[in-house]
Protein backbone atom coordinates (compact mmCIF):
# COMPACT_ATOMS: atom_id res chain seq x y z
CA UNK A 1 0.00 0.00 0.00
CA UNK A 2 1.30 3.45 -0.91
CA UNK A 3 2.65 5.59 1.92
CA UNK A 4 3.32 9.29 1.31
CA UNK A 5 6.45 10.74 2.87
CA UNK A 6 4.85 13.77 4.50
CA UNK A 7 1.58 14.28 6.35
CA UNK A 8 1.53 17.81 4.94
CA UNK A 9 0.47 16.31 1.61
CA UNK A 10 -2.95 15.64 3.19
CA UNK A 11 -5.03 18.80 2.92
CA UNK A 12 -8.63 17.79 3.71
CA UNK A 13 -10.08 16.13 6.81
CA UNK A 14 -13.13 13.92 6.30
CA UNK A 15 -14.86 13.34 9.66
CA UNK A 16 -16.90 10.13 9.88
CA UNK A 17 -18.50 9.50 13.26
CA UNK A 18 -20.10 6.07 12.71
CA UNK A 19 -18.28 2.93 11.49
CA UNK A 20 -20.60 2.64 8.49
CA UNK A 21 -19.87 6.29 7.58
CA UNK A 22 -16.17 5.49 7.59
CA UNK A 23 -16.82 2.39 5.47
CA UNK A 24 -18.74 4.46 2.93
CA UNK A 25 -15.92 6.99 2.73
CA UNK A 26 -13.26 4.33 2.27
CA UNK A 27 -15.36 2.55 -0.35
CA UNK A 28 -15.16 5.67 -2.52
CA UNK A 29 -11.42 6.28 -2.26
CA UNK A 30 -9.55 6.20 -5.55
CA UNK A 31 -6.50 5.05 -3.66
CA UNK A 32 -5.94 3.88 -0.09
CA UNK A 33 -2.71 4.81 1.67
CA UNK A 34 -0.76 3.72 4.70
CA UNK A 35 -0.04 6.35 7.35
CA UNK A 36 2.45 9.03 6.22
CA UNK A 37 6.04 8.09 6.95
CA UNK A 38 6.85 11.20 8.99
CA UNK A 39 4.09 10.71 11.58
CA UNK A 40 3.67 6.94 11.61
CA UNK A 41 5.38 6.68 15.00
CA UNK A 42 3.20 9.46 16.47
CA UNK A 43 -0.10 7.66 15.93
CA UNK A 44 -1.20 6.49 19.37
CA UNK A 45 -4.56 5.42 17.94
CA UNK A 46 -3.77 4.61 14.34
CA UNK A 47 -7.16 2.94 13.93
CA UNK A 48 -8.83 6.36 14.30
CA UNK A 49 -7.42 7.43 10.93
CA UNK A 50 -7.55 6.23 7.35
CA UNK A 51 -5.57 7.80 4.54
CA UNK A 52 -6.14 7.99 0.83
CA UNK A 53 -6.85 9.96 -2.31
CA UNK A 54 -10.06 11.17 -3.92
CA UNK A 55 -9.37 12.60 -7.36
CA UNK A 56 -6.57 15.13 -6.95
CA UNK A 57 -6.94 15.43 -3.18
CA UNK A 58 -5.16 13.50 -0.46
CA UNK A 59 -7.53 13.17 2.48
CA UNK A 60 -7.46 11.84 6.01
CA UNK A 61 -10.60 10.12 7.29
CA UNK A 62 -10.94 10.63 11.03
CA UNK A 63 -13.24 8.57 13.23
CA UNK A 64 -14.38 9.39 16.75
CA UNK A 65 -11.75 8.47 19.32
CA UNK A 66 -12.10 5.15 21.08
CA UNK A 67 -15.24 4.20 19.19
CA UNK A 68 -17.27 6.79 21.10
CA UNK A 69 -20.20 8.60 19.51
CA UNK A 70 -22.09 11.82 19.96
CA UNK A 71 -21.36 15.48 20.66
CA UNK A 72 -19.10 14.82 23.65
CA UNK A 73 -16.61 12.72 21.66
CA UNK A 74 -16.42 14.95 18.57
CA UNK A 75 -14.34 17.81 20.05
CA UNK A 76 -11.74 15.38 21.40
CA UNK A 77 -11.43 13.71 18.02
CA UNK A 78 -10.95 16.99 16.18
CA UNK A 79 -8.55 18.28 18.82
CA UNK A 80 -6.38 15.20 18.36
CA UNK A 81 -6.54 15.62 14.59
CA UNK A 82 -5.49 19.27 14.76
CA UNK A 83 -2.56 18.44 17.03
CA UNK A 84 -1.46 15.71 14.63
CA UNK A 85 -2.06 17.71 11.44
CA UNK A 86 -2.02 21.41 12.38
CA UNK A 87 -1.76 22.48 8.74
CA UNK A 88 -5.24 21.19 7.84
CA UNK A 89 -7.78 24.02 7.56
CA UNK A 90 -10.55 22.31 5.62
CA UNK A 91 -12.99 19.78 7.03
CA UNK A 92 -15.97 17.80 5.85
CA UNK A 93 -18.42 16.29 8.34
CA UNK A 94 -20.05 13.48 6.39
CA UNK A 95 -22.62 10.93 7.49
CA UNK A 96 -26.26 10.39 8.34
CA UNK A 97 -28.89 12.63 9.88
CA UNK A 98 -32.60 12.98 10.52
CA UNK A 99 -34.51 14.79 7.79
CA UNK A 100 -37.28 17.28 8.49
CA UNK A 101 -39.73 16.62 5.68
CA UNK A 102 -42.58 19.04 4.98
CA UNK A 103 -43.92 18.05 1.57
CA UNK A 104 -46.93 20.34 1.90
CA UNK A 105 -44.52 23.28 2.25
CA UNK A 106 -42.33 22.30 -0.67
CA UNK A 107 -39.71 20.64 1.55
CA UNK A 108 -40.02 17.19 0.01
CA UNK A 109 -37.17 15.41 1.75
CA UNK A 110 -37.02 11.62 1.35
CA UNK A 111 -34.85 8.94 2.92
CA UNK A 112 -31.52 8.74 1.14
CA UNK A 113 -31.59 12.40 0.11
CA UNK A 114 -28.54 14.54 0.82
CA UNK A 115 -28.58 17.67 3.01
CA UNK A 116 -25.73 20.19 2.65
CA UNK A 117 -25.12 23.01 5.13
CA UNK A 118 -25.47 26.26 3.21
CA UNK A 119 -25.04 29.73 4.76
CA UNK A 120 -27.95 32.04 3.99
CA UNK A 121 -26.93 35.41 5.40
CA UNK A 122 -28.51 34.79 8.80
CA UNK A 123 -26.60 31.62 9.72
CA UNK A 124 -23.47 29.75 8.76
CA UNK A 125 -25.53 26.79 7.61
CA UNK A 126 -25.37 25.15 11.04
CA UNK A 127 -27.00 26.07 14.35
CA UNK A 128 -26.75 24.47 17.76
CA UNK A 129 -29.90 23.45 19.61
CA UNK A 130 -29.67 22.44 23.26
CA UNK A 131 -32.57 20.30 24.42
CA UNK A 132 -33.75 20.53 28.01
CA UNK A 133 -34.09 17.51 30.26
CA UNK A 134 -37.81 17.23 29.66
CA UNK A 135 -37.17 16.51 26.01
CA UNK A 136 -40.26 18.35 24.82
CA UNK A 137 -38.76 21.77 24.18
CA UNK A 138 -35.51 23.13 22.92
CA UNK A 139 -33.47 26.24 23.44
CA UNK A 140 -32.20 27.58 20.16
CA UNK A 141 -28.92 29.44 20.09
CA UNK A 142 -26.36 30.35 17.51
CA UNK A 143 -23.04 28.66 18.19
CA UNK A 144 -20.92 30.91 20.35
CA UNK A 145 -17.62 30.08 18.64
CA UNK A 146 -18.48 29.04 15.08
CA UNK A 147 -16.01 28.77 12.28
CA UNK A 148 -17.06 29.97 8.87
CA UNK A 149 -17.41 27.10 6.40
CA UNK A 150 -14.29 26.94 4.22
CA UNK A 151 -14.64 29.41 1.36
CA UNK A 152 -13.08 26.95 -1.08
CA UNK A 153 -15.83 24.44 -0.29
CA UNK A 154 -18.62 27.02 -0.55
CA UNK A 155 -17.24 28.04 -3.94
CA UNK A 156 -17.23 24.39 -5.00
CA UNK A 157 -20.83 24.03 -3.83
CA UNK A 158 -21.82 27.00 -6.02
CA UNK A 159 -20.07 25.47 -9.02
CA UNK A 160 -21.68 22.10 -8.43
CA UNK A 161 -25.16 23.59 -8.05
CA UNK A 162 -24.70 25.46 -11.33
CA UNK A 163 -23.59 22.24 -13.00
CA UNK A 164 -26.59 20.34 -11.62
CA UNK A 165 -28.87 22.94 -13.20
CA UNK A 166 -27.69 21.57 -16.54
CA UNK A 167 -26.64 17.97 -15.94
CA UNK A 168 -27.64 15.27 -13.42
CA UNK A 169 -25.60 14.52 -10.33
CA UNK A 170 -22.96 11.81 -10.49
CA UNK A 171 -24.16 10.31 -7.21
CA UNK A 172 -26.10 7.45 -8.89
CA UNK A 173 -23.04 6.52 -10.98
CA UNK A 174 -20.80 6.57 -7.92
CA UNK A 175 -23.25 4.37 -6.02
CA UNK A 176 -23.37 1.91 -8.91
CA UNK A 177 -19.58 1.85 -8.87
CA UNK A 178 -19.67 0.88 -5.21
CA UNK A 179 -21.84 -2.09 -6.07
CA UNK A 180 -19.79 -3.18 -9.10
CA UNK A 181 -16.49 -3.21 -7.28
CA UNK A 182 -14.86 -0.47 -9.33
CA UNK A 183 -11.57 0.93 -7.95
CA UNK A 184 -13.82 3.41 -6.24
CA UNK A 185 -15.98 1.15 -4.16
CA UNK A 186 -13.92 -2.04 -4.27
CA UNK A 187 -14.53 -2.61 -0.55
CA UNK A 188 -18.21 -1.69 -0.60
CA UNK A 189 -20.70 -4.01 1.00
CA UNK A 190 -24.10 -4.93 -0.39
CA UNK A 191 -25.68 -3.15 2.60
CA UNK A 192 -25.15 0.15 0.78
CA UNK A 193 -27.93 -0.64 -1.71
CA UNK A 194 -31.20 1.31 -1.78
CA UNK A 195 -33.62 -0.36 0.69
CA UNK A 196 -36.64 0.23 -1.54
CA UNK A 197 -39.13 3.08 -1.60
CA UNK A 198 -41.81 0.99 0.12
CA UNK A 199 -39.91 1.31 3.41
CA UNK A 200 -39.74 5.11 3.13
CA UNK A 201 -42.81 6.10 5.14
CA UNK A 202 -43.48 9.51 6.65
CA UNK A 203 -46.16 9.77 9.33
CA UNK A 204 -47.96 12.76 10.74
CA UNK A 205 -46.35 14.21 13.85
CA UNK A 206 -49.10 13.06 16.21
CA UNK A 207 -48.72 9.38 15.26
CA UNK A 208 -46.23 7.52 17.45
CA UNK A 209 -44.71 4.26 16.32
CA UNK A 210 -46.69 1.14 17.21
CA UNK A 211 -44.93 -2.00 18.40
CA UNK A 212 -41.30 -2.87 19.05
CA UNK A 213 -40.38 -3.97 15.53
CA UNK A 214 -38.22 -1.71 13.41
CA UNK A 215 -40.75 -1.66 10.58
CA UNK A 216 -44.04 0.22 10.52
CA UNK A 217 -46.29 -2.72 9.64
CA UNK A 218 -48.59 -1.96 12.58
CA UNK A 219 -48.67 1.81 12.17
CA UNK A 220 -51.88 3.40 10.90
CA UNK A 221 -51.88 3.95 7.12
CA UNK A 222 -54.49 6.67 7.57
CA UNK A 223 -51.91 8.76 9.46
CA UNK A 224 -49.22 8.36 6.82
CA UNK A 225 -48.39 11.51 4.86
CA UNK A 226 -49.39 11.09 1.23
CA UNK A 227 -46.51 11.79 -1.13
CA UNK A 228 -46.36 11.28 -4.85
CA UNK A 229 -43.92 8.78 -6.25
CA UNK A 230 -40.71 10.27 -7.58
CA UNK A 231 -39.68 9.67 -11.16
CA UNK A 232 -36.57 7.84 -9.98
CA UNK A 233 -35.02 6.51 -6.79
CA UNK A 234 -32.00 8.78 -7.20
CA UNK A 235 -31.38 11.04 -4.20
CA UNK A 236 -32.25 14.72 -4.28
CA UNK A 237 -29.75 17.23 -2.89
CA UNK A 238 -31.06 19.94 -0.54
CA UNK A 239 -29.08 22.98 0.60
CA UNK A 240 -29.80 24.95 3.74
CA UNK A 241 -29.79 24.92 7.53
CA UNK A 242 -28.79 21.94 9.67
CA UNK A 243 -29.39 21.80 13.43
CA UNK A 244 -26.75 20.18 15.63
CA UNK A 245 -28.36 18.80 18.79
CA UNK A 246 -27.09 17.23 22.00
CA UNK A 247 -29.02 13.96 21.85
CA UNK A 248 -30.61 11.59 19.36
CA UNK A 249 -33.97 12.92 18.16
CA UNK A 250 -36.67 10.26 17.79
CA UNK A 251 -39.68 12.29 18.82
CA UNK A 252 -41.70 14.24 16.26
CA UNK A 253 -42.75 16.78 18.91
CA UNK A 254 -39.13 17.64 19.72
CA UNK A 255 -38.25 17.72 16.03
CA UNK A 256 -41.10 20.12 15.36
CA UNK A 257 -40.03 22.45 18.18
CA UNK A 258 -36.56 22.61 16.65
CA UNK A 259 -38.14 23.40 13.31
CA UNK A 260 -40.19 26.20 14.84
CA UNK A 261 -37.25 27.60 16.80
CA UNK A 262 -35.19 27.83 13.61
CA UNK A 263 -37.87 29.82 11.83
CA UNK A 264 -39.07 26.79 9.87
CA UNK A 265 -35.79 26.77 7.96
CA UNK A 266 -34.15 23.62 9.33
CA UNK A 267 -33.77 20.70 6.92
CA UNK A 268 -31.98 18.18 9.09
CA UNK A 269 -30.83 17.34 12.62
CA UNK A 270 -27.59 15.68 13.65
CA UNK A 271 -25.36 15.50 16.74
CA UNK A 272 -21.65 16.04 16.11
CA UNK A 273 -21.07 18.95 13.75
CA UNK A 274 -21.31 21.80 16.30
CA UNK A 275 -18.48 20.38 18.40
CA UNK A 276 -16.38 19.84 15.29
CA UNK A 277 -17.03 23.23 13.68
CA UNK A 278 -16.08 25.06 16.87
CA UNK A 279 -12.49 23.94 16.16
CA UNK A 280 -12.23 23.27 12.43
CA UNK A 281 -13.92 25.04 9.49
CA UNK A 282 -16.24 22.46 7.96
CA UNK A 283 -18.97 21.83 5.47
CA UNK A 284 -21.61 19.45 6.82
CA UNK A 285 -23.11 16.81 4.52
CA UNK A 286 -25.78 14.42 5.80
CA UNK A 287 -27.62 11.60 4.12
CA UNK A 288 -31.19 11.31 5.43
CA UNK A 289 -31.58 8.00 7.26
CA UNK A 290 -34.78 8.76 9.21
CA UNK A 291 -37.29 11.52 9.95
CA UNK A 292 -36.21 12.17 13.56
CA UNK A 293 -39.40 10.65 14.92
CA UNK A 294 -40.48 7.53 16.81
CA UNK A 295 -40.48 5.53 13.57
CA UNK A 296 -36.69 5.90 13.38
CA UNK A 297 -34.70 2.73 12.64
CA UNK A 298 -31.33 1.82 11.13
CA UNK A 299 -32.53 0.33 7.84
CA UNK A 300 -31.59 3.35 5.72
CA UNK A 301 -28.36 4.26 7.49
CA UNK A 302 -25.91 2.46 5.15
CA UNK A 303 -27.50 3.83 1.97
CA UNK A 304 -27.76 7.34 3.45
CA UNK A 305 -24.10 7.21 4.47
CA UNK A 306 -23.24 6.20 0.91
CA UNK A 307 -25.23 9.02 -0.74
CA UNK A 308 -23.58 11.61 1.53
CA UNK A 309 -20.13 10.22 0.76
CA UNK A 310 -20.84 10.12 -2.97
CA UNK A 311 -21.92 13.78 -2.91
CA UNK A 312 -18.60 14.71 -1.30
CA UNK A 313 -16.64 12.82 -3.94
CA UNK A 314 -18.49 14.74 -6.65
CA UNK A 315 -18.00 18.02 -4.79
CA UNK A 316 -14.25 17.50 -4.51
CA UNK A 317 -14.01 17.45 -8.30
CA UNK A 318 -14.75 21.19 -8.12
CA UNK A 319 -12.15 21.96 -5.44
CA UNK A 320 -8.76 23.03 -6.73
CA UNK A 321 -5.77 20.99 -5.63
CA UNK A 322 -4.04 22.54 -2.63
Structural notes for this entry:
With 322 residues, the chain is of the alpha/beta class. It is built from 7 helices and 11 strands. A hairpin with a 2-residue loop joins strand 3 and strand 4. The chain is globular and about 60 Å long. Mean pLDDT is 86; it is low at 185-189. InterPro entries: NLR-like (IPR053137), Nucleoside_phosphorylase_sf (IPR035994).
Mind sketching the topology for me?
Blueprint (H helix, E strand, L loop, with lengths): L11 E5 L2 H9 L3 E3 L15 E6 L2 E7 L9 H12 L6 E9 L14 E4 L8 E6 L6 E4 L9 H14 L6 H10 L56 E9 L6 H10 L4 E5 L2 H5 L4 E9 L10 H16 L6
Parallel strand pairs: 1-4, 1-5, 5-11, 6-9, 7-9, 9-10
Antiparallel strand pairs: 2-3, 3-4, 5-10, 6-11, 7-8
Helix pairs in contact: 1-7, 4-7
